[in-house]
Write the structure tokens for this entry.
Amino acid sequence: MCRSCSRFLLSFLILTSFAHMGIAQENVGEESTVRYPASYFTEWAPVTAQDMMDRIPGLSSNSSRGGFGGGGPPGSSRGGPPGSSRGGGGGGRGFGGGSRETEILINGKRTAGKNNSTGGQLTRIIADQVDYIEIIRGTSGELDVRGSGQVVNVVLFEEFSESTLQYDLNVTQSDNNTVKPRGVFSYSGQAGGLGFLLSATVLEPHFQSRSKENSVLGDFSPNDRVLEESETGGFVKTISSNLDYEISGASSARFNALWLDGSGGTELVRNTIDLKGGPTIGSFQEEDSPASTENWEIGGDYEFLTGRGDRFKILFISNSFTQANTRERYDILGEGFRKKNLFLDSWNNTKERIVRGSYTFDIFENQDIEVGAERAQTILDSTLALGLAGGEGIPSALTGGLIPVSLSNANSIVEEMRYEPFLIHNWIISPRMSLETSVLYEDSKITQRGDVSKERDFDFVKPKVDFRYDLTPQLQLRGTIEKVVEQLTFNDFVAATDDQDEDSNVQAGNANLRQEWYWNYEVNAEYRLPNDVGVVSGRLYYEDWHDRIERMDVTVDENQLQSANGNIGDGEKYGLELRGSLRMRMIGLPNLLVTATQEMEDSKIRDPFLGVDRRMLGSWRGRNVFGFRHDLPSLSVNYGLNWSNIFDGSRTRYDIDDIEYGAADPFWTSFVEWVSPSNITFRLDAQRIVNNGEFCRERQRFVGRISSGIVEEIEDQCYTSGSVFSLRVTGTF
């Protein structure tokens, strides 16, 4: 075991031993449910539901809580559009299944939305509206989510006559002294059976970075030095609404809507110094990348309870997400004169439509069955145009006045139709044991039209078993066996921009992709320490992967090597996670909440380029996380710090003609917060406060394929976004 892992385990054993020195053990919950009434939070004078969540051991969010601007409007940075990364697919499929992470419910219900989520409402619900917060560690047919690691239910007062107007104002300063504002205004309340939450957000995001790259040739002689500075900005407007209506004691309905409009862009300056013998030669380039984003989403659900307690529920979601980005690169030939050498225009629109219905009923005492079906349609419409200076051809206005370059699979529509009937059985075996079993059948058809025409059918049977046993009200054990089918990233089907490699403008698409899937076997243990001291938990897991999606060779013309995301074969992944969240009562500081995480992971798969076993792409060796939050109720002040460090050497990426090795400095964030007597919260956040959060990458380029073993160039690049400070003021009228 690694030395840092041993230290971590020893520390937790010591802390747990101290925790057991409490005078007496209190019952922290009723069976598997832990309830925190509003009175529990009184001494900390919380303003929002999120403030209350932050004080619960095991649930404390990181200290930034979204206090930073950063990032730019979606699609405006050089990070590339969704799906253009070098990794595989993304996320589990379906709306009904639960994740391993904490699920948030409000009054036992989950918001029918993807971008307009339940968790995002917590900062807009004032503390006075909250009756209690409960952590549900068991399973039940009454829950809106199934098989989740943990469910947090925020229960509001049934009748809250006062309406509230809340403001959240924020200014963020980057290390280049750029200051950008953000404002969020929310109006919430209840009128009879109608509860409402309306919110509007305006912000000017800002993100800047600096990088320095030194490269040598294969014989280790100097090649060049590249210095880059980029700055991304824009303007984003968002409006969202969440409505719920109690039609009667037996029926209720909810409706949610979101609209987002963003515009902005990235400006980049690059200085390249040639070091290959002779006099040093420098060249300059500039890039302009204007971008825009549009997103709308509507969702809703209706629930009806019969006289015998059966439940019928139907929900729907419809959304659209559009990104447009134009990248133009110029050689700077003299003061006030520049010549365009690259034009790259990308546009994509993703639409999703989901409808799901289910009926839940008791079959025996303490046993119920949910039967239902889900229909989902996902459509990606994507176009890409590339223009280069020089070569043969006629310049075109469609490619910025440059010569068009023919791209394979650049204009396509990809559509998936999926049908998923399911059956879920929930059995409360005893007050201390529960068993949930489910089987889902998925039938889908993926059709691609445009530059490539293809149609394929898929079907999967997805069983799952989730067993939970409470040895005591404090100690719970859980075992899970599940077949997980991952969601395909549709951008992998089509040609997309490559913003990670300056020598490559476009990544090839792969129309032959199929879903990657794996069997997940895991054991979880959670111990809630006596006297509300805290929570210690662990997770041991093994994943048996099939049809894993990573980079593979799709070369057609040997004069132009090409790789794309594709199914490279089977592999395995396994790991251990240890987490702890403790109040320091044993040293006389009950309002000091310390959190720590140790994650260790390894994986194995056969590399398609070298034919050797290696770690899966995106699978790290592990990381350490440490943080604390200290409340000083007498001063209405709280402050905290988070530190996160991913093990170096865990980010190796293999591609057809290069290998990358990544390493990064630990990531630091801190905050201090004061609540005034009039309940106005002032919060100062700091991000990347040590070493500027520098990330470094070594890229080895090879002559031809990496299997040749002939190194052509070695690039050593480090970049940082610098420190960021944010001042946030929140309150209510």
The domain at 3-732 is CATH 2.40.170.20 (Maltoporin; Chain A). The chain has one domain: 3-732. The CA atoms of residues 356 and 585 lie 47 Å apart.
